[in-house]
Amino acid sequence: MRLEMCWPGRTAIATLLLLVFSLLEMTVANAADVNGMTYEQAKQRVPQRQIPKFWIGDVAGLPARFEKLTHGKVRTIAVSPGGRPVHLVAYGRAEKLERKANFNSAIGGREPAAYMNKAARKKPVILFIGPVHGAEVEGLTGLVNLIHIMESAEDLRGKNQSELRALGRQCRLLIVPDGNPDGIARFEPRSLCGMELNDLRFWGQGTWSDDTFCGWPQSKRQHPMVGDNTGFLGCYFNDDGINPMHDEFFDPMGPEAPAILKVAKEEGPDLAVSLHSHSNNPAILRPAYVTAEIQQDVRLLAQRCYELLADRGLPYGSVFKAATEGGRNPSSFNLTSAMYHISGTSSFTFECPHGLKEGCQVNFEQILDIQLSLYEAMIQHEIEKKKL
Ligand SMILES: [Zn+2]
Questions:
Q1: Residue 36 dihedral angles phi and psi, to the nearest 5°
Q2: What single-letter DSSP state applies at residue 154?
Q3: If DSSP codes are grouped into helix, strand and coil, which group holds residue 245?
Q4: DSSP states along 167-232
Q5: Please, which residues have CB within 8 angstroms of residue 78's CB and are 6 or more apart in sequence?
Q6: How far does the centroid of ligand 1 lie from the alpha carbon of residue 22, in Å?
Q7: How many angstroms separate the alpha carbon of residue 276 from the centre of ligand 1?
Q8: Which of 87, 178, 242, 377 is the most buried (most CB within 10 A)?
Q9: Which pLDDT does position 30 carry in this prediction?
Q10: Beta bridge partners of 173
Q11: Are the beta carbons of 208 and 35 closer than 8 angstroms?
């Protein structure tokens, strides 16, 4: 009897608890599974942080900064659709070499030196391409610090970097800190450090007109990213909706990628990097559509770079395996591939952690150390090859 009397009460409590739990579950699921965001929501999510002074997350101050350089030679190599300059800052004298053919004709002629006899140069030439994806400002911070180091032997923290400067002086360094200034200007948080993957989705690739994330790789399925179905234009893109990593290199859509490729063509760098960022450990990616020898060279560089990061207690990824192109989803022929095909350079993409809450958790200082360690490994790699 008592049992019978109790059961309806128990059932009601159980039902209520079940309801509460499923509501809680739905809230948790929604929090983890947000598939969109408005611009206002995205702005509100930017944490109140003290971004350190050595961090460079915007292009606004670059022209004034570069006017003051005493050692570096600065020029504007392109103007973005938004009217912003793309800079080239060079250190070290250019060594004149005879050129009889463009790179691919020289290769066809079985004589790479007809394009440029790189072995005849005394110093290696290294090309650094800063963020062509505007939210990936870790490379901008790294390169503006490298410029400061080449000027003063200190980074922007005031830390002595005379060894890195001495290494840099054994090379010709070509630095394009701002590969996509429109995208960088649109990136209002100035850093994703301490933020979440959903913030990266909003600022990185942007939204459709219904505020859902474009996401990766879907954000690459419409290019240029323009039209009625687009919402917030992600920082991947310049103000005309062009992603310089995937410009049409044989019939250019935007000004940034062709300007970068022109520098590569004229300078014939030995080594070139396109600096990007992601949520995981620092990673040197396998360059696609390049020769087996170039892949092997970049593999050796990756080993050297990861060893340096390990020595310094910094995170690092795993060394890629050389491979041929193909399969269901072959690699794209992107800016990194194009740099090889116009100049014969060992070119690669570097992915640095943003310091998101998910994935590889690093702070501002560590991100700068990762960038500078990569540059050091690159310079060492080329100096040693020259000695062989
Ligand atoms: Zn990127």
A1: -170, 175
A2: B
A3: helix
A4: HHTTSEEEEE--S-HHHHHH-TTS--TT--HHHHIIIIIEEETTSBB--TTGGGSSSS--STTEEE
A5: 85, 86, 255, 256, 258, 259
A6: 38
A7: 4
A8: 178
A9: 42
A10: 91, 126
A11: no
| Tokens matching residue 313 | 């207690």
Distance CA 359, CA 305 (A): 20
Question: Tokens for 69?
Answer: 């350089």
Per-residue pLDDT tens digits for 29-79? 344 458 999 999 999 999 999 999 999 999 999 999 999 999 999 999 999
* pLDDT over 60 (residue 98): yes
Mean pLDDT score, 218-241: 98
Element spanning 348, H or E: strand 346-353
Per the structure block, which two tokens stand in for 43? 């702005």
Domain 35-387 has CATH 3.40.630.10: yes
Overall pTM > 0.70: yes
Residue whose C-alpha is closest to residue 274's, from 255, 298, 253: 298
Q: What is the pLDDT of residue 232?
A: 98
* Cβ within 8 Å of residue 24, ≥6 positions away: none
Domain spans in the chain, listed from the N-terminal domain onward? 35-387
Instruction: Check residue 321 and report its DSSP letter.
Output: P
CA 187 / ligand 1 centre spacing (Å): 13
Helix, strand and coil percent figures for the chain, each rounded to 5 = 40, 15, 45
Ligand 1 centre and the CA of 133: distance in Å? 5
Dihedral, 42, 44, 46, 48 alpha carbons, nearest 10: 180
* Contact between residue 286 and residue 339 where contact means Cβ atoms under 8 Å apart: no
Q: What pLDDT score does 34 carry?
A: 82
CA of 376 to the centre of ligand 1 (A): 21
